[in-house]
Amino acid sequence: MALPASGPIxxxxxxTEFSSSQxxxxxxxxxxxxxxxxxxxxxxxAASFYGQSAGVSVTSWIFKSDSGNTWDDVETACAAxxxxxxxxxxxxHDGSGTxxxxxxxxxxxxxxxxxxxxxxxxxxxxxxxxxxxANSSGVVSGTAACEG
Length: 148
Fold this sequence. Notes:
This protein is an alpha+beta fold.
């Protein structure tokens, strides 16, 4: 969860964002260097940290998209993949595998600060086409191989 884009920011909020158990002698420079947009000099609490996030560890994967968009439904995605009519779009997931699995969260950026849109997604693993759905929080469910 990113830090607020405006208003007050406290060191405890920054420590929480970075999952730091440190409660004294915290370093703005140390936290600033770990931001998704690193800040290492002239670090100021509010100005440098507004809207920033520590992000998550992610793995890239190729989404076979409908010209960069999610698919309307599984059948349309599977048919397009079978005919070779899909575009390649790089996305990211927070799981441990090469491709997203049920329960993983998908993102449009590395370090995983922007959740991908809800919809039907597709990918190719070897010679098999797969689809899954993602909800508005980017959580993957219903991963299945396309039939035929």
